[in-house]
Amino acid sequence: MSATLPSAEFAVALPATPSPLQQLQRTLSGDMLKLRRTAALRLSLFSGALPVLLTFCIFYFKGQYIIKGGIDPWPKFVSMAWQTAGTLLLPLFVVLLTSLIVNVETKSGAWKHLFALPVGRGAVFVSKLLVLLGLNMLALLLFAGLLLGAGFLLGLVKPGLGFQNHQAPLETVLWMFGHTYVATLGLLAVQYIVSLYWRSFVVPVGVGMGAVVATIALLNWEHVDKIPYSAPLGTTMQMKMTKLGGLEVAHTLFKHEWYSLAWFAGALLLGYVLLQLRRAD
Amino acid sequence: MTTPTLLLETQGLSFRFGKRPILHDINLQVPTGSIYGFLGPNGAGKSTTMRLLLGLLRPAAGSVQLFGYDLAKHRVALLSRVGALIENPSLYDHLTGYENLEATRRLRGIPATRTAEVLELVGLSPDSARRPAKEYSLGMRQRLGLALALLPNPALLMLDEPTNGLDPNGIIEMRELLRRLQSQGTTILLSSHLIAEIEKVATHVGVIQQGKLVFQGSLPELQRLQTGRAHLVLETESADTCRNLLPQLLGEATITGLSTLRLPYHSREQVATLAEALVAAGQPIYGLHSEQPSLEDTFLHLTETNAAI
What we know:
The complex is a heterodimer of chains A (281) and B (309).
Chain A: H1 20-34, H2 39-66, H3 74-107, H4 111-114, H5 121-157, H6 170-198, H7 202-217, H8 231-237, E1 240-241, E2 247-248, H9 255-277
Antiparallel strand pairs in A: 1-2
Helix pairs in contact in A: 1-5, 2-3, 2-5, 3-5, 3-6, 3-7, 3-8, 5-6, 6-7, 6-8, 6-9
Chain B: E1 6-17, E2 20-26, E3 29-31, E4 35-39, H1 46-53, E5 61-66, E6 69-70, H2 71-79, E7 82-85, H3 97-108, H4 114-122, H5 126-129, H6 138-150, E8 156-160, H7 168-183, E9 187-192, H8 195-201, E10 204-209, E11 212-218, H9 219-227, E12 231-235, H10 239-245, H11 247-250, E13 254-257, E14 260-264, H12 268-280, E15 287-291, H13 295-305
Parallel strand pairs in B: 4-9, 4-10, 7-8, 8-9
Antiparallel strand pairs in B: 1-2, 1-3, 1-5, 5-6, 10-11, 12-14, 12-15, 13-14
Helix pairs in contact in B: 4-6
């Protein structure tokens, strides 16, 4: 083969750099597509529905022992479901979700491909974080929505419990949704960094499960509210019955939720710096 | 800049893994419009070099110039004109072939029509593109990986062992595709541990051995290297007797068997003179032929002796 080559006519001008926002938008668009048929999406739907389903069954079959004498069944119903969700399910859900989302790339050996595309490391980091925050919100919204729906359904199929005769605690559920979301942010960020740094499925799941179990063992410790894995449970405990038999929760952030936010910011900042030191491929 | 201009150039590129040196002072020069065969045995540092060229790794020393711009400074911009397939194709098994392309297309911000074009280019039917990637054979995975690399209509295409897993037909198709892309102006950097593969398409060759570039030049230059290494092989009754009888002609010969001699080939006249002298000396000639070393031998010679050229 001849070694004479076309020369200058193929010279390449420096292509334009896409703006950071454009990079993020492209990465996010790709990340959303990669969610198709993944366990992460199914897990989010399942985790939103499971605590509601459990509580619904308890009330459907044994409701008459729990609600007696025409009192408002909603507070008991909502707090029971929230306890089921907040104690174990929610922290474990966040642990699994972050590991699954990051594992989409790891499993496919796609990090080297992803980082050889014209998007910066920052865009990749923020995009997956947004996907996580979105799915986490989806699961919680689904939980809150289904919870209210299940209460109305009980009013129809088990009128004896009296759901139809009382007002649903819509406002409290909305505030609790906000509180709980903030409470999951700290552990979400910690798990996200662990998943990205180790690029394995087993390590972040192991770390997360260990941390959840350790938190439960340490519940009586005076500093337990500083552990991000305890925050969802802490929020659940803040929901109080009023003297009038209603359900209420404060409209300001609790101390453990501030800690959760601090973990969120700290872990993301520190993690991002750490990840710059790691090889990209 | 020299003529022809260099599309890709590295200066003193070095890389260490911890304390272990992997690459040492690599000065690649990939001319614009070439098919550059990057040759070396497994573990010589080909993949590491390619990862450095994509900015996936940070070099311990040296720099990479792509299209005349510093990669470290303009990575994101430059990568929009580079397509790469490094080692195994990075495929999302839970997505279809089409969705795999779509994910990368969105990340690159390329028009949607390009997806069908690259499927056509690599010879994947729309039917197979609708199947999940986990059902793909090795050859189909490789084709899809190539399609991913071709998405941006790259000015520089980097392929790491692209014929892995392809059947003979696929290999021929791949070769034709590379030539076609080159004729359209794409510069191709192609790594392989098989010289035979490179020899058929490359215009330029770089040979890497133990992290050092031991040869770089055009394919004809590599071929010229081997002409100096042709040999004449003589089969006779007794090699020892022949050499004693004809010390002038067979002085530089080595005895490779009881009845075989091997000596450097110089010219056709040398062969005629030798045959005449052997007959005159009463020695039988059972065989007399020149042996041209294959490019493969040259390659082995380069990588074994580690001689810098």
